[in-house]
Every structure is written in C-alpha cells, then in structure tokens.
Design goal:
The protein has about 300 residues and is α/β, with parallel strands linked by helices. It has helices spanning about 15-30, 45-50, 120-130, 135-150, 160-175, 175-185, 195-200, 225-230, 230-245, 270-280, 295-310; strands at about 5, 35, 70-75, 90-95, 110-115, 205-210, 210-220, 250-255, 260-270, 290. The strands form 2 sheets. The protein has a 5-stranded parallel β-sheet with strand order 2-1-3-4-5. The chain has a 5-stranded mixed β-sheet with strand order 6-7-8-9-10. Strand 1, helix 1 (about 15-30) and strand 2 (about 35) form a beta-alpha-beta unit. Its EC number is 3.6.1.1. Keywords: Cytoplasm, Hydrolase, Manganese, Metal-binding.
C-alpha cells in the first residue's frame, strides 16, 4: 500500500498535531502506511504536551505532492487551511469537527465530521468502535488535544462525549486532567517574548465569507489587560498581513483562559467592520470590542460572522 501523509491545518494547534499522531497510529494498525506530519512548527502549548508524553514534533512539510499521491486530513477540510498543493493529491480520509466548506473530491472517500469539541474526541470513539486499545502516550496526546480545544471543558463547544473522552483518556494516560490541563494551557500563554507578527500567525485561519477573505486569529492569555496594551502594535501587524495576503478583514481574538472572556481587535474596510458590528451587535471603539463569554472561534465567532456576511 502506498504511503500517505496525515496532517492538520496550517498554523497547527494541539488538536491538529496531536490527532494527526494518534490517527497515524490508528491507521497503521489497520494496514495503512502513514506518517503524521505538520504544516507548521508546534506552538508552546503543543510542545509542552509532546514533551510530556514523549513525542518528537512531526516534521514540517510545505507541499505534499512531491512525496505522496494521497493524504488524510484531520481537524480541517477547507482547502485554504490545508497544504498549499492540496489540489494535486487525493484526499482519502477526513476526520474533523468543523464546518464543511469548499470541499470537493473526484472520488468517494472516508469522511467523518461530528459536532464535538475536538477531533480527538471523534478519534477516541473510532478507537472504541474498532476495539483498539489506546497506548498510554497516544491517550496522553489525544487528551491534550481535547483539553486544548475545549479550554479544559469550559468552551461552549464542549459536549458530553468530550467529557467522557477526557475522563477515559486521563485514566489511560495516568494523569489528573484538571491539574495537567491547567499546566498545559498556561504553557501556551507566554506571549511576552513573542512579536505581534508571530502572535497573529500562531493560531490563525482564513475563511471565505460571501466572496470576502476573512482571517481570524486567536491568542490565549492569562492577563488580558496586559495583552491589550499591545493593541496598536497588533493593529500594525494585522494591517501589514492583510495587505500582503489580500485579507478583506483581519480579526484578532485575545482570550483570557481563566475568566473565559475575550477582546476583539478588527482591521478592515468600513464595510467589513460594519459587518463585524452587525454580527456581534456591538460597536467597535478604536477598532476593539469586548466579547464577554466568547472563547470559541468555531462556535462563537465564525457562525455570526458568516451570517452577517451572507445576510
């Protein structure tokens, strides 16, 4: 069987990298020849989780077609979030938990997408359905992914399945998920030594909304006021990135992981800013707005923006 690469989205987070590793183990057990790779270097949080459970960071690829004819995707399906030459390879499998958009294939494939908090939760169900035992280190990296995506089960994306998966995986991994999870999340909030340019690209995704390209970045912190002191520098970096990449709007969501609140910073035209205000029924003040209770890009940011842009 020809080798396939498995990877998550660009600017990978713990779910994109952790689930790729776990899905590669899963698929190789059933006779596939796969390698987990990444579309970027791991962030601080992901690096912490990888080290905790004894994994090396997957190698980073820029293109796939020069290596393989087929790939498997985790934690994404939208082409603009994938490898640059995704149109030159065959996608044979997708395991995801996001909306399905702009995804087309020439042949049937395995596609599993469930409305849960994390792709690793879907994969945990797949392990159970196949009766495949989950090794301790694989359980640990899957646990880390779910904790990351659900903000330790506090995100509105969290479901009963996520709770069940976390409890089961923590037992296998041999950790207290609450203490480990807080330690891991805090490891990802060290932003003081990073430039604004780096921060707006750490966890950022592009979305096509009714003909507009909207870039949405999220940065987790434990000190929101301190992060907002860098607003002017963030705006400069966002404007430069928008000009270089043709974004119609750039939204930065700064999220306090302890208080479950966010502040939004928005760069764009008067038209797109007005659509942002419509989406959240809030006025931007000096390009910023408080977003109390907002912690999930997938469930609390993308849907209202989609509705406003398409309305």
């Amino acid at each position: 069987m020809a080798k396939e690469l498995i990877f998550g989205h660009q600017n990978p987070d713990t779910d994109a990298i952790g689930t790729a590793i776990a899905y590669s183990y899963f698929q190789n057990h059933f006779g596939f020849d796969t390698e987990a790779v990444a579309l970027g270097e791991p962030n601080d949080e992901t690096a912490f989780a990888l080290k905790k459970f004894g994994f090396e960071a997957p190698r980073v690829i820029k293109t796939a077609a020069n290596e393989v004819d087929a790939v498997m995707l985790v934690d994404h399906n939208e082409p603009q979030q994938s490898v640059s030459d995704i149109d030159k390879v065959t996608v044979t499998h997708v395991v995801d938990h996001h909306r399905i958009m702009n995804f087309n294939t020439a042949a049937p494939l395995y596609f599993r997408d469930e409305p849960v908090g994390c792709t690793s939760t879907v994969l945990w169900q797949m392990f159970n359905e196949k009766g495949l035992e989950i090794p301790q280190n694989i359980a640990g990296i899957m646990l880390s992914a779910i904790i990351s995506d659900t903000l330790l089960l506090k995100s509105p994306t969290t479901t009963d399945k996520d709770h069940q998966a976390v409890e089961a995986l923590a037992k296998i991994a041999g950790v207290d998920y609450k203490s480990y999870g807080l330690e891991m999340l805090k490891a990802g909030t060290n932003i003081a030594d990073k430039s604004e340019e780096d921060l707006i690209d750490l966890d950022a995704k592009s979305f096509e909304l009714n003909g507009h390209t909207v870039r949405i970045a999220q940065v987790n912190t434990v000190d929101l006021p301190e992060a907002m002191e860098r607003k002017a520098a963030f705006i400069n970096a966002m404007e430069a990135s928008s000009k270089a990449n043709g974004y119609d709007m750039f939204v930065l969501v700064l999220t306090d992981i302890l208080e479950s609140n966010s502040e939004g910073i928005v760069v764009g035209s008067d038209e797109t800013k007005a659509l942002f205000e419509k989406a959240f029924d809030k006025k931007l003040v000096d390009d910023a707005v408080e977003l109390p209770g907002v912690v999930s890009r997938k469930k609390q940011v993308v849907p209202p923006l989609t509705e406003a842009f398409e309305g």
